[in-house]
Fold this protein.
Amino acid sequence: MIHFDNLDKQWPDGTKALSNISLTVARGQFCVILGPSGAGKSTLLRAVNGLVPPTRGHVEIDGVVLSPSTQRHLRRRVAMIHQHFNLASRLSVAANVLSGLLPAVSTARALSGWFRAEHRRKACALLEQVGLSPTHLKRRAGDLSGGQQQRVGIARAFMLDPEVVLADEPVASLDPKISRDILTLIRDAARERNTTVLCSLHQIELAREFGDRIVGMRDGRIVFDGTPEAFTDERVRALYHGAQWEEPPRAPSTAAPAFELAHA
Ligand SMILES: Nc1ncnc2c1ncn2[C@@H]1O[C@H](COP(=O)(O)OP(=O)(O)O)[C@@H](O)[C@H]1O
Ligand SMILES: [Mg+2]
């Protein structure tokens, strides 16, 4: 479970990237973060692995508050998938997947390049799970297509069986067919392990298709939070074109918090 408690982030130049974000994402949920460029999606995701220290408020992962003293421990449990893959392009596919272990191994071992046989087996199994064959293992990561590179990025992210995967626009540089394949791989790998996924996207149709829940952000604030079904075209327009988002009228008996709706 990820819990954001009254999170604010103001950059030194005065930009308020996050304003009063309170959000709880249940274990195993695939939560899509949607919103125009500059809405604060990346800042929100990066607050979960400690890359962006908040100005106010805090982030909790399974009840543990992220702080300088817990960050090292929590980093092993939180993996990231990037828009531009962030692979070491001159290293092999195998080395890139094994680098997913780095938060958990000593620097000396990482430098020596020595990994236990069980880890090598796990890397192979993950590569197979993301649809790459053993013939890819020794290829230079930078020589693969974008879709294949993101498959490597997914395998790397799952090396430590993380409780949380942060995917920041993981398909923004891929074509629609490959985007769907990649999101399917992330969703399936996460379901198998009950991993919580926070995934920012800019494609509304993909958000509706893959999200258990959609959180819409604009100007650092949450302006929509609900199921894909509740994310109507009207809500899409409100998110992207700035119409004031208002709580829809509900009968008292159905006035459940939005995050509960996501599980209904
Ligand atoms: N390192 C930074 N320093 C200053 N401002 C930043 C920095 N990173 C992001 N911002 C600003 O914070 C706001 C939110 O950015 P970001 O989280 O990247 O939005 P999104 O991912 O939704 O496009 C934007 O106004 C952006 O310009
Ligand atoms: Mg971003």
Remarks:
- The pocket of magnesium ion (ligand 2) is lined by residues 41-42, 168-169 (CB under 6 Å).
